[in-house]
Design the sequence.
């Protein structure tokens, strides 16, 4: 844990440059706009420790997997989010001395991320080898208003000299992925061009053949007036295009480079029109100018905050933490493009590759449902609908048939691209996370038409998977599900993981509901789906019912609790509090077999199930299970604590809820797990939001009605959050004195606050 | 399955060169002498498909492992048997045309392995591009009498021309391992020298720094007289030394190259004396000459066959098969060097790396016990004794303490070098295979002193492992063993694998016996061991007893059988006969999860336990378990059928026993599994031997007495085998008419044949 960042309500602030923290800051100060993102690398050269990273949504590379012992059924490739061409580069040299913060004396270094406006600023004074001292201020943003535009204002002021400055302003596709399995470069040049004031490079990815065009225009001002360059050379190298400009830097006078970048991908433009389109984007940005572009950008952020802000009074660190989580989620996914999704590191790093895990459905969806228009969450569902064909292929590869759909554990295009048998093949509950997301969406929005349009097809596929995946145990006279890994990945290849069995059977019931709904409401569409999916309604739903009726659920009768899986009570039951400090985290200290045979739980498993199907259990059942499982849970997944916060809040375990909350809220800001340099934990940030809104705020939707049952942690004066719900924006404020509810926009509605109806109108 | 090899009692014969079979033949026709081995590669150049392989016992390289998802506790390296310097090379070119069987017309190709004398011969007529036709006959052997000597007789006869021939005769350390993880070369040059008639190269392995010196001398004769070379050039390149000789080849006259090679390793010589020693070995071999060397070599083989031959009358294919198995075992391990062991591919290929698996103790030991002097088997045990320190380190890495010993799954030097958590960490029964081997050895030889000298220390270490590895199940009020993989590797991470639990508890009882024996027979040595191992006798053996008393064994009460592991009966119980042909072999057709949740068994598991502890079970228990488990077993390990043969024989299931036997006897000769090109299945060959002797022959040792209970498969006229037993050599011959027993050497003894005492004397 590190605490080098300053606390501030709206800003992330780093003062002083500590090279050891640079890669952490590069992650934390990342900016993005849902279409692209950029780590907080320096514009100028930097020979110190850095992880250069620029990312374009949807552009990936299927890197050949590296695996020790190949198992039949493994995919050949692991899809990686690509490090995309560099658009931020502005190299500076003064009298043949490069400006490189690893090699000069740096004073007054400050890096600020303004979350309210999505602006990254950096300033410092650097003394070069010969004593020349220069002040630099840079600002940049990825435009939220124009998804293909990035803009930089880079200002240089000589403090004790006048001299010739050489500026290299460029775009560069000669970039590498640090996580490349075979040290390969993934980009090839297609086109490049540079002329005075502009440059463009089109590069294509190997194998996947995505084209990305990265272009730039710039202008230079001194003291607010166009600067006259002494000389301008164009520079063209393999995958690289730029200008080298010689300018006169005058003591005390600010020379400013305004650099406008266009980042366009063949996902959004025909390949042969990419360059033309990029030039158009560039010209518009250039003529608009930095300030006007920034105003447009800031307005979008203003709107986003109006939809989604959470305020916390009395605890600036907590306020900063929750806003940082919301900020990152907002800039990772805007919901405008149904082909995109939420990678575990968003645009802040390469780690984990792939773009999509079940994290999206299980953790992120509720955030977008409540903080944006319904389209945003809906597009996340449609993303999976579009991958249905691939999910059916994935299932086929594992021996399933007749349209059974097995959604991938990690994917870019719907195809499984993860290679670890105990996860890839066995962590099967994820396929039903897609079903649960449909329920979540419909329950929240009331948009049952989603069943008709997309949902039913997906549900039939998933239901077919389960109906083939169970087997009849003659021993138990029940249907069982053997050889799975549950959400708790510290158990592998277990039999009858309760969460998996419960979710599987629930999916069959839910699919039946969808069948009934569509059949009763749109028979034509129903018949269309029956024909498209070769659905044999009677035969298939009879089997679903049979499985639902006879599904086996492991229980511990003595303790009257749910059993995580068969045989769990054969373990030595210890408590996390009995572990020695040097044993933690288990996954870095214990060998895998020791973890597996221990009772310790990586992340909520039975409790995850109870959280998802809360209304199926009475409060005492929830309490018994929570009291049993929470002390065994090490929360070594960032996705775990939020579920426990929500249940602890429900059970009135206030201090426990707050304590668990703290683990997630500043996870990256304080680099709790010593891994933020690889990127921020984006998907778990939605869990932090849930901890406040569903945990402390007690928000639920039941039968179309919003419920709140809030409490306030002792450490806070008040907190408030905004919720979008069926065309309204509500604000809920919780203080020591009570709960204030306010309808900020939309039609009147009745909500339930602590068991009582409250009528809201504007 | 392929059947291109001719049937013959003593020889393996290939007629005609089919390039598709060349790599298979290279494996099958391999020769070795326990110190080194050589695949049946051609002496001359060959540009067709080939796997060049030469191996020196004990010389390995720790190749950096390649693994997809690293687990804490994995070893960094995987020890590989190295492809060692090439000593066979004789390149031939005639009028600038290379002799390369992939590029000329080949007639009368014949490859013969004479198993009686360990001689590889090859002959062919080749027509070069310009029509020149030449006949070549080559013979070679790895001397069984002089472990560091290889000899080649390579004869060339022009059939339709006279011309200048250019012969390149060399040794070459510039070789690669096909299974290198990062395409690295593992050898570096230390020294090389060439002069007229001789050449030598010393190379060292990276990281492990083994030095291997490979030298050669040669002479050339035409028509039985020393040939005069027109020109001799020495040739020296990186890691390569040789001579290039120009000789006049005369139509119809045979020119013969006699090449003598010396292969010496720093395992047996000081590094600085390797070259001197190699030259001495070379000179001796050279002066002895090919024929005299061969006579000495053949005599050793004659003696080996006298000890170990099995004859089968009435079935030449079976006769050839069993002799091939014995031949390979004999040339893989001679028992002369306690630092060596038996790799799964012996000296016939690279696959699997490492040198030592539990195969040695579980499958190979009985063969060497019965077919060689006791020292040979004893050295296999001492090998593990010498690795005890490493086994204790291996255990420590996985969280065990106080001298617990966990023997590796794969090793070269005692250190674990395998990376697959479900095997490396969880297939724990292998550590007790070491204990069982001690029992096997003592039971067979009567040498109880082994306890005192080595056994007890090893047994204390292994017992300590088990006493820490079990845990108390409050649920069952029993000790349980969680998270293991049994011998049946088609189950991973299961709880209470019966075989593992049984073997674990047995080990504790056996360790107690060892403690008692040594304490009662050699108190001084006992005290020495107590002090060396910090053995707290009372406390530790009390715990052993407690565990033995309260060990949990899964059973199926309904069927009155042993349960392979907890939960096994939840599976859908099918029979192998219900599988479709296209589903086999499962490990190539089904994804891993499907295999895991199926009932199908890769290799004997419960039955392996019953086989090892046969006398603990009454015949009806054995029958019930066999009848249940055999139909579920796919035998996708070559180590599986032999156990079933032995039990089926005992149960009187004659045709079933014979059928299972057939799967192993010609496994490599007929390339059953399509994988012989990677090397022969050496360790499972011992299982084939067991099938005959312990299966059909029904041989057992009980309380120091030999028992036989033979039957003869309907397909055979008779079979016979020889057994070494406590200083005697016995011959047992079984025919339709009955059993003949004969004492060939040694003191009189009483044996039990079909329940009756038979007095044997010479």
Sequence:
């Amino acid at each position: 844990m590190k605490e080098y960042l300053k606390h501030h309500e709206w800003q992330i602030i780093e003062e002083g440059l500590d090279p050891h923290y640079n890669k952490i800051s590069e992650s934390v100060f990342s900016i993005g706009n849902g279409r692209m993102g950029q780590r907080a690398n320096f514009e100028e050269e930097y020979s110190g420790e850095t992880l250069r990273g620029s990312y374009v949504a949807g552009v990936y590379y299927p890197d050949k997997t590296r695996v020790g012992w190949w198992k039949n059924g493994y995919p050949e490739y692991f899809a990686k989010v690509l490090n995309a061409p560099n658009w931020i580069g502005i190299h500076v040299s003064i009298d043949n001395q490069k400006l490189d913060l690893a090699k000069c004396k740096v004073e007054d270094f400050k890096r600020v991320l303004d979350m309210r406006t999505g602006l990254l600023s950096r300033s410092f004074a650097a003394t070069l080898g010969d004593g020349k001292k220069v002040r630099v201020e840079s600002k940049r943003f990825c435009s939220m208003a124009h998804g293909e535009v990035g803009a930089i204002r880079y200002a240089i002021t000589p403090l004790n000299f006048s001299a010739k400055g050489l500026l290299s302003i460029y775009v560069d596709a000669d970039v590498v992925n640090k996580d490349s399995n075979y040290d390969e470069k993934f980009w090839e040049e297609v086109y490049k061009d540079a002329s005075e004031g502009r440059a463009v490079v089109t590069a294509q990815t190997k194998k996947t053949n995505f084209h990305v065009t990265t272009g730039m225009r710039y202008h230079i001002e001194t003291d607010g007036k166009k600067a006259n360059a002494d000389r301008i050379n164009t520079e063209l190298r393999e995958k690289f295009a730029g200008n080298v400009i010689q300018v006169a830097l005058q003591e005390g006078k600010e020379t400013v480079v305004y650099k406008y970048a266009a980042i366009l991908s063949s996902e959004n433009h025909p390949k042969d029109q990419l360059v033309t389109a990029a030039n158009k984007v560039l010209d518009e940005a250039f003529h608009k100018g930095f300030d006007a572009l920034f105003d447009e950008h800031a307005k979008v952020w203003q709107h986003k905050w109006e939809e989604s802000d959470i305020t916390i009074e009395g605890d600036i660190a907590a306020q900063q933490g929750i806003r940082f989580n919301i900020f990152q989620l907002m800039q990772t996914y805007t919901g405008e493009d149904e082909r995109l999704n939420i990678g575990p590191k968003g645009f802040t790093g390469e780690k984990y590759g792939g773009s999509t895990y079940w994290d999206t459905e299980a953790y992120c969806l509720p955030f977008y449902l409540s903080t944006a228009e319904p389209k945003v969450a809906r597009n996340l569902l449609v993303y999976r609908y579009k991958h249905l064909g691939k999910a059916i292929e994935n299932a086929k590869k594992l021996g399933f048939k007749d349209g059974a759909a097995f959604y991938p554990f990690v994917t870019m295009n719907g195809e499984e691209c993860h290679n670890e048998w105990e996860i890839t093949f066995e962590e099967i509950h994820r396929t039903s996370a897609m079903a649960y997301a449909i329920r979540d969406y419909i329950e929240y929005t009331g948009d049952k038409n989603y069943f008709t349009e997309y949902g039913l097809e997906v549900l039939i596929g998933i239901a077919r998977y389960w109906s083939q995946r169970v087997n009849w145990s003659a021993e138990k006279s029940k249907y069982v599900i053997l050889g799975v890994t549950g959400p708790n990945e510290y158990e592998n290849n277990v039999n009858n993981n309760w969460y998996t069995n419960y979710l599987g059977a629930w999916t069959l019931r839910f699919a039946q509901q969808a069948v009934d709904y569509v059949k009763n409401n749109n028979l034509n569409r129903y018949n269309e789906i029956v024909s498209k999916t070769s659905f044999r309604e009677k035969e298939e739903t009879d089997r679903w019912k049979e499985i639902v009726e006879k599904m086996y659920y492991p229980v511990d009768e003595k303790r009257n609790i749910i059993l995580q899986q068969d045989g769990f009570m054969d373990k030595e039951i210890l408590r996390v509090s009995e572990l020695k400090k040097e044993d933690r985290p288990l996954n870095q200290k214990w060998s895998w077999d020791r973890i597996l045979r221990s009772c310790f739980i990586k992340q909520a498993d039975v409790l995850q199930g109870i959280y998802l199907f809360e209304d199926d259990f009475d409060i005492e059942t929830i309490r018994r299970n929570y009291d049993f499982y929470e002390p065994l849970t090490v929360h070594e997944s960032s996705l775990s604590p939020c579920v426990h916060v929500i249940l602890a809040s429900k059970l009135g375990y206030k201090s426990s809820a707050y304590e668990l909350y703290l683990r997630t809220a500043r996870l990256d800001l304080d680099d709790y797990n010593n891994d933020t340099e690889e990127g921020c934990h984006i998907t778990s940030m939605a869990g932090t939001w849930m901890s406040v809104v569903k945990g402390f705020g007690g928000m639920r939707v039941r039968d179309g009605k919003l419920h709140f049952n809030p409490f306030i942690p002792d450490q806070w004066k008040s907190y408030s959050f905004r919720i979008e719900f069926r065309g309204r924006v509500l604000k809920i404020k919780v203080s020591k004195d009570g709960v204030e509810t306010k309808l900020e926009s939309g039609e009147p509605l009745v909500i339930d606050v602590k068991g009582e109806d409250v009528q809201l109108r504007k």
